Amino acid sequence: MKILVFGPPNRYRTYRPAVADQLDAQLVFRTPDQSYLQAARENADAEVLFVDAITEVSDAILEQLPHLKLIHSEGVAYNCIDCEAARRRGIFVCNNQGCNAAAVAEHTIMLMLMALRQGIEAHNAMLAGRQIEKKTEVIAAGNPGLFQCSVGLIGFGDTAQATARRLAAFECPLYYYTLHRRSPEVEEKFGVTYLPLEELASTCDIVSLHCAVTPDTVEMVDADFLARMKPGSILVNCARGALVDNLALRQALIDGHLACAALDTIEPEPTPADHPLVNLPLEARHRAIYSCHLGGASGGCFARAHETMWTNAQRVTQGLRPTHIVNGL
Predict the structure, then answer these.
(1) Residue 297: is its pLDDT beyond 90?
(2) What is the DSSP secondary structure assignment for residue 111, as one 8-state letter?
(3) Quick check: do 2-99+298-317 and 101-290 share a fold?
(4) CATH number at 101-290
(5) What is the fold of 2-99+298-317?
(6) CB hemisphere CA count around 67 (13 angstroms)
(7) Where are the alpha helices (DSSP H) in 22-157?
(8) What percent of the chain has pLDDT over 90?
(9) What is the DSSP letter of 145?
(10) Alpha-carbon distance 218 to 18, whole Å?
(11) Using CA atoms, how far apart are residues 118 and 122, in angstroms rounded to an integer?
(12) So where are the chain's domains?
């Protein structure tokens, strides 16, 4: 069996699970000088494709892989894979649902705290020898602690639930919105209160994104949504950059309507230095925090993900259905 990989070789060496040794598999990586289409064309006998969650797998690429049985996202997201084209060809598309929920939840709360406590500004002030000046400024500003903030979670899957579980220790009011409201038992378990989307935006001091990218959620955080958010509120995005209208968020930061946007993900990736959310005017730069899409980048998460990927490859070679199928086969 040949497995084609659209991703960095070092991750596959570091996180290679024991189950990989049970397979008679040839692992082939796309080289930096190859396009994805060329790599597919030159490995037309591949039966499995392992792919980084931000790499596009188009219908044109699938045309070059007539023997493909499985496409496996290395992460949770799969919106860059043409799932319908794969379904038409009888190719399973799978993800690693829930594998990084704990890590992303930790990262989300870290960004909330950095935004509230001016973590980056304080760091820079210390390096510049301005400790006392910055301390005096922060105390005079009277910014709230996380325990004083109402937090709204948009989406309520694995990551949002893990975030809610950890936020309970901060004793802050928790709200959520999702397309299908959860049962009273689930709401009580996680200590959350349901609000319609518009009401959540206008109620919460911190709005945190945890939903998948779908045709209905692309750029859901647009100018209208941002205008509904409370003046001085905080937006946190550890989900996907495509959920946000970049230019609308840029303007909200420049205008000072938002106190901060703490962004683990920005569309597109890789994100260039002249991106409108990165290349902010000097007077607005303190209102943005970036973290390079590191939310799920813990060793434990990747070890779990690669275990699932190789196990599903094994299942497919044995004629069994893989787990975490996302394209309806």
Answers:
(1) no
(2) H
(3) yes
(4) 3.40.50.720
(5) Rossmann fold (3.40.50)
(6) 14
(7) 36-41, 59-63, 83-88, 101-116, 119-127, 131-141
(8) 98
(9) P
(10) 39
(11) 6
(12) 2-99+298-317, 101-290
